Amino acid sequence: MRRTASTTHTLRRTAKPWLAAAVAATLTLPVLAPCAAAAGTGGAAGTAACAYGYTSDATVWFGAGADSGVPNRETGGGCTVMDEIMAGAPFATHGAFVRTVSSVTKGLVRERVLTGGERRDIVRAAGDSEVGRPHPVTGGRSVDLSRIGLVGYTVRATMPTDAEGTLGALAECGFQNIEPSGAAGNFYGHTAAELAPLTEAAGIAVPSLGVSLSNLQNDLDLVVAEAHAIGASYVRVSGSGSWTLEDYSRTAAILDEAGEALSAEGIRVAYHNHGYEFETEEDGVTGYDVLVRETNPAFVTMELDVYWAASTDTSATDLFARYPGRFELLHLKDMAEDGSFADVGEGTIDFAEIFAGATLAGVRYGFTEHDQPSPDGVTSACTSIGNLAELRY
Q1: Model-level pTM greater than 0.85?
Q2: How far apart are CA 16 and CA 6, in angstroms?
Q3: In this structure, what DSSP letter does residue 159 have?
Q4: Neighbour-count burial for 134-146, b at 16+ CB within 10 Å, e otherwise
Q5: d(Cα 146, Cα 148) in Å, to the nearest integer?
Q6: Residues 6+ apart with CB under 8 A from 266
Q7: Which residues of 86-105 are buried (b: 16+ CB within 10 A; e: fewer)?
């Protein structure tokens, strides 16, 4: 069932009791067909043309600085304006994208889905967007290290017993940010309030905290308190390899509900992927597609782990082109030739290409990570940021 305006209330009302059962057992609800709307035409009423399509709770939005402000209305068959426009993504050129938007919206004005003024706003937003514009690697730009951090999981071996020393060593080799991983109230045995003076003393900011999905459902006040205590403006969560597409749809509703509540506190929700989101697929739609399309970009962003995407032959830059503006956070993790983890810049992932596409993606922070660091977390982390300091893209 696609999450549209008519189904949102029910999903939000039932979100909390669902979670435990959904993780424990696979749901067996019917799966609908993927979006089949033709550009410029609405789907037939009463059909399921766009299961797991773009939420109608959002606006027609093409990335930061390209929000039309026009509601993403239903067009028929469970489809929305965004479903019809983005059915052609990725777009080869910016001109092709704007022409598609112009054509689709012209038809929707004729069908009285949009007004003429709304069409003009949408076409204007398309013109202002990065969609379809070239983002080449020129070799003349360097990475802004003030926007680079470390996922705390890399140094999980030393943070519980020597957080002060670990943070100091990271700062010494150039890290200005860190994303602690854990759950609200427990980051390597510390609360955020206990870590805050240590990160501050090291000169390291904490823009994001890794918490649990359960925290978003059951401990939202604690999440807010922890984020405020350490100055985080993002909280990120991960999912489960046992989920079906319907589970991802329900999770999208949970993320939106928490994201809307947290937005009043200046906090955004981010979803961090592994590989299974791309491998859970039905009729050409993946779990990742569901999460991106069914969450409202006003409240929820994605934290793309480029290693786990690559492990399923999913290109980060292809995702940027398909879902512009949705990736405010990245996990920068490299892949060795044999598929194992590598320090950033030591493996096979093209980070120059990723940084060149960062404007299209809407990236604000990138966090390096190594799941199995050698010889130790600090050494691995420092190697990664050293390589990024030398990268030209």
Answers
A1: yes
A2: 19
A3: H
A4: ebeeeeeeebeee
A5: 6
A6: 233
A7: bbbebbeebeebbbbbeebb
Burial 196-206 (b: 16+ CB within 10 A, else e): bebbeebebbb
- Secondary element (H or E) of residue 290: helix 287-294
Are 233 and 266 in contact by the 8 Å Cβ rule? The answer is: yes
CA 11 to chain centre: 21
Domain ranges of the chain: 31-128, 145-390
DSSP 39-85: TT-PPPTTS-TTTT---TTSEEE-STT-EEEEE--EEETTEEHHHHH
CATH 3.20.20.150 applies to domain 145-390: yes
Summarised one tens digit per residue, pLDDT across range 139-175 is 999 999 999 999 999 999 999 999 999 999 999 999 9
Dihedral (CA of 148, 152, 156, 160) sign: positive
Distance CA 171, CA 182 (A): 21
Q: What is the pLDDT of residues 350-365, one digit of tens each?
A: 999 999 999 999 999 9
N- to C-terminal Cα separation, the chain: 42
Query: Which are the contacts of 84, defined by CB distance < 8 A and separation ≥ 6?
Result: 37, 38, 39, 40, 41, 42, 75, 104, 108
Distance of alpha carbon 103 from alpha carbon 293, whole angstroms = 22
Rg (C-alpha) for the chain, rounded Å, is: 21
Other beta carbons within 10 angstroms of residue 364's beta carbon come to 18
- Residue 304, classified by CB atoms within 10 Å of its CB into exposed (0-12), middle (13-18) or buried (19+), is buried
Half-sphere exposure of residue 29, counting CA atoms within 13 Å on the CB side? Answer: 15
